[in-house]
Structure formats: C-alpha cells, structure tokens
Amino acid sequence: MANRVQIRTSSSALIAMIADEDTITGFLLAGVGNVDLRRKTNYLIVDSKTTVKQIEDAFKEFTTREDIGIVLISQYVANMIRFLVDSYNKPIPAILEIPSKDHPYDPAHDSVLSRVKYLFSTESVASGRR
Amino acid sequence: MERQESSENGRESNEGISVKEENILNFLDSVDGYLILMDSLSSTLRQGWLELASARHSMGASRINSTLFDHKLHPASTTLQVNEQSAGPDRELPHFTLCKWASSNNPEKYFEEAKFGEDELLKKSNSLRHRDISHNSGNVCFPTFRFDCLGKMTRDQGFDLEALGSISMRVLKPVTNPLEMVVEISNMRASLLCAYDQVQKDMETATK
Fold this sequence. Notes:
Order of helices and strands of chain B: HEEHHEHH
Number of strands of chain A: 4
Oligomer: heterodimer
Shape of chain B: elongated
Mean pLDDT of chain B: 68
Low-confidence stretches of chain A: none
Largest sheet of chain B: 3 strands, mixed
Strand content of chain A: 15-25%
C-alpha cells in the first residue's frame, strides 16, 4: 500500500504535442490546441531551427504540468532526448511516440517497448531457468 | 493424510502456475494490441498528411502554415477525462476518455455521430486479437454541459480555423480518428506496463 502510485484524475486534461508542423496543424484542427492566459501553449513545433535544449525544456514542462494527460512526441524528436524519455516512468501524463512524415514508427526505439523487451531477452530466459 | 496434503499442495501449485501463465498471456496480448494500434495510427496519420498536402496544394502554402496560428487565449475544445481504473488489489491504472465537441448543430445528429464514431471504434477494436473490449475500448465522452452553449462553442472552434484563413471543415477534415486511437493507445500502454510489472514480480518471486 505504501508503494501505491497515485493516479492524478482530471475531468479536462489536455493533449500536449512535440512534433513537426504538419502533425501539429492536423491535431490543432481537431481542437486540441490550448493557449492560456500567459500565452503558454500545449504544443511545440519542431523544425530545423529548434534546439535540443528547447525540446528538453518543453518535454520537462509538459510532463510536470498537472493539466496535461497525454504527451504526443514524434519518435525522431524523442530520439534527440532519448535519455529523458526513457527515464520517464510516471503513469500520467502518458508519453506516446508517434511517427512523422519522414520518419516511420520504429518499435525498437519505443521507450515502452524498450522497457519490456528485457522479458524477451535470452538473459532473462536463462536466469529464469536456473 | 499425507496423500491429502500433497494433493492439496499440488492443486495450489497448479493454480499458482495458471495465474502466472495468465499474467504472461495478458502481457503478450497487451504488447500485441499496442503494436497493432500503433500501426493503425501510422496509417491514419499518413492519410492525414496526404490530405493536408492536398489542401496546401489547392489553397496555397501561405494559407496553411504555423505562422497563422493565433496565440490569443483559447481553451482546447478536445480534452481528456482521466480516471482511475482498478487492475487488482493495490493496483490502479489511469484510464483516458476523449471528450470532444460536436461537429453538428443538430443535437440529435450530434449523438448519432457520436454513437457512429464509437461503433466504428469498437468494430476496429474487434479486429484486434485481444478481445477484452470493455478493458481496452477508447470510450468517447461528450460532456453535456457544453451542449447548451453549442452555438458559442462552434464559433470558438471556428476561431482556430479563422487563423488559417477561410478554410471550411470539409476541405480540411479534422483528424478526429487519430485522437481516438491516441486515447486507445494510452489505455493499452497503461495495461501493458501493469502486465509487465506483474510478470516481473512473478519472475522475482520464482527466483527467490
């Protein structure tokens, strides 16, 4: 009971996005875009001029905000901050790595699947048999 | 007496093995469902990018780009409801539900569209090998309190579109299906991680 993870419930959580312009345009048209009183948005458009620091800061901000339930991040962007994404282990917000136009989805790089692939490795099978 | 005790121990060990096997099957099903959903999302997004490129071609790149995004105060019209879902003793999962605006001024048609959208999603869920739809379905929730001010909210939804020029909803179809898939994948992700934790716990118990 002491180690139980608290699930943060919400009735109107946002979907945050860190992706290329076309992906974000499409999702904004679906109505997920949010601009608050401080003109802070729930998305970051990544292009050739976006620095890794900006992406890191956006990821840290979106994963610590209490009003965000899901963070969508293009997988090629996630690869730029792989250490941050892989070390994230909270239940909320959920981090989903999505494909982009020029970079198809690769299950081998997905942080969730990377975490669980240990169960399929020969080391885990061998240790279970000892 | 000894035979009775040994048969009881055998039954207990059989039950223990079957629970562990069930946990492994749940985990494998979750991984399978996750991969299938990611594949579906990839296809749907690809279709969306194609439509966006087509709209850009017909209307001009200057009318569909990020420089036209408005940064005035604007709440999201599509949000999430996050609840707790019990996954066993001392274990809870987050459960996501999509809450989105109507796409029609007619209230009856609104609910029909919602029902149609939910039925379509359930049909797609049926195609997954993992059949536990009640556990994995991406439920679509339509908050009724917003329904009363539908006229106002319709204008607010158009606010984003005004920023992109006079683009009608028919020219650029909103990517609503991927949103439902995103919610479904998020729920599947939570199940996958829960199943993984359980299998890992079983392995640690077995090695002790």
